[in-house]
């Protein structure tokens, strides 16, 4: 339903962060484990720059094949599919890891790229809705299409990994504030899990009583 973003969109600057995109790709070249953190949130189409989509796609393919990801294997993979120039060429790929801030920040960079991609999709969806209204289409149909479009964006944006802090975020986190010492943390969502009959309800009622009294 949405068109692809390209670097040729000059009418208005589309939301993107080329620095975050390059940092992710460079981090994967330096440490292949960084791809795991990136794949928790990103797909190739989330990248703004077409070159970066090609590179990320081939990195993923190399990982699936069990091949180490480095400049040599990446260049070979792109060359075999005649996509080397589309990915920026040898010089661009060779410089991806230059000046990389921190490999451990990949999760944060991936979140930035994902957020920018979601904003672009919202812009495209809004544009299509506007065009439908100008064509005087049935309001109910336009509304249904709008709900579908934004529902897909919301589904694509949600990620269970966002419930948890990354290790770098944990390292600089503020001291914990507990409502019940060593048991119930304040300012967060606390989850009590267990099998049926394990006493979850009793525990939660006891916690509620403790907080009230």
Summarize this structure briefly.
By secondary structure, this protein is mainly alpha-helical. The protein is built from 9 helices and 2 strands; from the N terminus they run ααααααααββα. Strands 1-2 form a two-stranded antiparallel ribbon.
User: Which range best describes the helical content: under 10%, 10-25%, 25-40%, 40-55%, 55-70% or over 70%?
Assistant: 40-55%
As a percent range, the share of strand residues is under 5%
SSE pattern: HHHHHHHHEEH
Read across the widest sheet, the strand sequence of neighbours is: 1-2
Q: DSSP helix count?
A: 9
Average pLDDT for all residues = 84
Main beta sheet: 2 strands, antiparallel
Number of strands: 2
Class based on secondary structure composition and strand pairing = mainly alpha
Low-confidence stretches: 1-10
Roughly how many Å is the radius of gyration? 22 Å
Shape designation = flat
Q: What separation lies between the terminal Cα atoms?
A: 55 Å
């Amino acid at each position: 339903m949405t068109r692809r973003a390209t670097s040729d969109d000059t009418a208005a600057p589309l939301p993107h962060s080329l620095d975050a995109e390059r940092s992710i790709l460079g981090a994967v070249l330096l440490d292949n484990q960084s791809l795991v953190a990136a794949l928790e949130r990103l797909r190739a189409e989330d990248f703004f720059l077409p070159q970066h989509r090609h590179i990320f796609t081939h990195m993923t393919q190399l990982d699936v094949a069990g091949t180490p990801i480095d400049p040599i294997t990446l260049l070979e993979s792109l060359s075999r599919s005649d996509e080397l120039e589309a990915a920026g060429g040898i010089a661009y790929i060779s410089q991806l890891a230059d000046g990389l801030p921190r490999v451990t920040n990949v999760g944060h960079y991936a979140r930035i790229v994902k957020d920018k991609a979601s904003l672009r999709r919202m812009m495209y969806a809004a544009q299509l809705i506007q065009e439908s209204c100008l064509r005087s289409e049935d309001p109910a149909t336009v509304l249904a299409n709008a709900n579908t479009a934004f529902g897909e964006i919301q589904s694509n944006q949600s990620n269970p990994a966002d419930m948890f802090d990354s290790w770098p975020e944990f390292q600089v986190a503020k001291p914990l504030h507990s409502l019940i010492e060593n048991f119930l943390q304040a300012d967060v969502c606390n989850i009590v899990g267990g099998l049926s009959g394990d006493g979850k309800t009793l525990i939660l009622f006891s916690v509620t009583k403790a907080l009230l009294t």
